[in-house]
Design brief:
31% of the residues lie in helices and 23% in strands. The protein is of the alpha/beta class. It has 2 domains: 229 residues, Rossmann fold (3-Layer(aba) Sandwich); 167 residues, Rossmann fold (3-Layer(aba) Sandwich). The strands form 5 sheets. Strands 13, 16, 19, 20, 21, 22 and 23 form a 7-stranded mixed beta sheet that branches. A 6-stranded mixed beta sheet has the order 6-7-8-3-9-10, sandwiched between helices. It has a 4-stranded antiparallel beta sheet with strand order 2-1-4-5, covered by helices on one side. A hairpin with a 2-residue loop joins strand 4 and strand 5. The radius of gyration is 23 Å and the shape is globular. The termini are far apart. Bound molecules: adenosine-5'-triphosphate. Adenosine-5'-triphosphate binds next to strand 2, helix 1 and helix 13.
């Protein structure tokens, strides 16, 4: 800003994968000290574009100049040497190593972990992004891991920081503190390229925006002068509707489908969060939202609900049957479906084709539709996969691509579609719209509501309070491994939820909000 030569300028940048032009002739320029948003629907080409800026992909055509100097970014090492740092959408940390060890590995001047701790301490104090340098990354919740990823890049002291959806796993407070850091960096003359689907955030944070659709730039605008609806329209090409659960949608006599009774679970890891006497009841047709700050037991709760962590047989009941010590497969056979928060690696096998990924959460069905006697019917499996892709508008270059080649949002749509297409009696979903664009998020939320209307019992764990307020009947808050009483989602306020998230057990306990209900067991 104020400087006529932009820090980064890109002209005619192009990249194709086979017949698909993922990025086609894109121009972009980012001024010094600017926070520039890169917007676009899932699959618009944002990640492909920034991968070319960071040297992990080579363009087929086009030029990149840094401070007016033509540059070829051949590798991430070179990008870092040029002053470009990148925080990726997917985690790239070594789980068995400590925070300090992970950061030491990423720094080109190769400090020891102890030296990193000193650098980190200064940085954390200056910018206020707190992490424990001695914590083992594998024990950290995704929100904290994301903070480590961000700190790892910021410690490289780049001139341009590229962030690919950095706040999708952060709480509002964590996101706010990140914005403080980014604003401070911008005021020091650093530039930020910020990819996000959260349009409110973009309007509050960014001073410039480039909007992409189908690999091309369709608009350059000042987001501070736009509304979220106008930005969404520019991204998607049409208006985006908002879904909302009707109050009182659950019948008073709806049968109890899923029940957790006083579950105590210690994950047995140093930095995991124990669940303390967690109880919940979910009825047919009911959506229970679980709110909470990352690291308060969400992962452990999902593991207990899904059977990835086993507890006493009687502590978890599905349709009245005890399942607490039954495996995830046995629970699936009883009609449950699960969507974990990490779509690449946990919910899907990145190297496998979508058709194979469609199969992995289905036992070769007893009805023989996908095969029998150990023989798989590939034509039927492909049909199932394309049915999921059509129903959830999953976009990709090839007919049956590897999961790893899908954009993040498209893979999320596929994973959610795969589980919903089983018409489960019980659905447990952790962060359903993480990294998903406004139109796709609205679609996924609508599909969850439709599933509830068909009578499924649904548990949605999400850090997005607006999302929970939109689709839940009841909301409980997880704080330090304790789950609050369920609150009526049509009456609870953001303030009450915020206090509960901060660990105040009395918040929200007014007679109007607590959902009282007695069920015959
Ligand atoms: N390695 C690859 N091989 C084949 N196709 C790819 C590959 N990487 C990306 N694509 C395709 O290129 C298109 C653009 O993907 P990209 O990841 O850049 O989108 P995006 O705008 O970042 O989307 P999202 O918001 O979902 O992350 C998509 O259709 C995607 O399937």
């Amino acid at each position: 800003m104020g400087n006529t030569v932009p820090l980064l300028a890109v002209e005619g940048l192009t990249k194709s994968f086979g017949a698909l032009v993922a990025v086609g002739g894109v121009d972009l320029s980012i001024g010094e000290g600017s926070i520039h948003a890169l917007l676009g629907e899932n699959g618009a080409g944002k990640s492909t574009l920034v991968k070319m800026l960071y040297g992990t992909l080579q363009p087929d055509a086009g030029n990149i100049t840094i401070r007016g100097k033509p540059t070829v970014v051949t590798s991430p090492n070179e990008a870092r040497a040029l002053g470009i740092g990148m925080v990726f959408q997917h985690f790239s940390l070594f789980e068995s190593m400590s925070v300090a060890e992970n950061i030491a590995l990423a720094l080109d001047h190769k400090p020891t972990p102890d030296e990193v701790k000193v650098e980190l301490k200064e940085f954390v104090e200056r910018y206020g992004l707190h992490v424990d340098p001695d914590a083992t990354v594998g024990d950290l919740d995704v929100g904290v891991r994301q903070r480590v990823e961000i700190l790892r890049v910021l410690l490289q002291k780049p001139a341009l920081v590229i962030l690919d959806e950095p706040t999708s796993v952060l709480t509002p407070q964590e996101a706010e503190s990140l914005f403080g850091v980014l604003r401070q960096l911008a005021s020091e003359g650093k530039s930020i390229l910020y990819i996000s689907h959260k349009l409110d955030e973009v309007r509050a944070l960014c001073d410039d925006a480039t909007v992409m659709r189908h690999g091309k730039v369709v608009e350059r605008t000042d987001p501070r002068k736009e509304s979220s609806a106008s930005l969404a329209r520019a991204m998607v090409g049409s208006d985006v509707s908002e879904v909302r659960r009707k109050a009182g949608a659950v019948a008073a006599d709806a049968p109890l489908v899923f029940e957790l009774t006083e579950v105590k679970y210690d994950p047995g890891t140093l930095f995991g969060m124990s669940l303390k006497n967690v109880s919940m009841r979910v009825h047919s047709g009911e959506i229970l939202g679980i709110a909470g700050v990352a690291g308060n037991g969400q992962k452990e709760l999902f593991d207990v609900l899904s059977g990835e962590a086993l507890v006493e047989l009687d502590a978890v009941r599905m349709d009245g049957h005890p399942v607490g010590s039954l495996s995830i497969s046995k629970r699936r056979q009883r009609g449950a479906a699960f969507v974990p928060e990490e779509r690449a690696g946990h919910a899907s096998v990145p190297a496998m084709a979508l058709s194979e990924n469609a199969l992995i959460t289905r036992k070769a069905p007893e009805d023989g539709t996908l095969g029998s006697l150990g023989v798989m019917k590939f034509s039927a499996i492909h049909k199932l996969s394309s049915m999921i892709r059509d129903a959830f508008d999953v976009r990709s270059a090839k007919a049956d691509p590897a999961a790893s080649t899908l954009s993040g949002g498209n893979l999320q749509k596929f994973v959610v579609g795969r589980e919903l297409s089983r018409d489960p009696k019980i659905l447990v979903v952790n962060q359903p719209t993480w990294g998903v664009d406004a139109a796709a998020a609205s679609f996924i939320r609508g599909a969850i509501l439709q599933l509830a209307e068909k009578g499924s019992a649904i548990i949605v764990i999400s850090q997005d309070l607006d999302e929970l307020l939109q689709i839940s009947d009841k909301i409980s808050v997880l704080s330090h491994g304790h789950l609050s009483e369920p609150l009526d989602a049509s009456k609870v306020t953001l303030e009450q939820l915020g206090l509960l998230m901060g660990g105040d057990p009395t918040a929200g306990q007014s007679e109007t909000t607590v959902v009282e209900r007695s069920d015959a067991a």
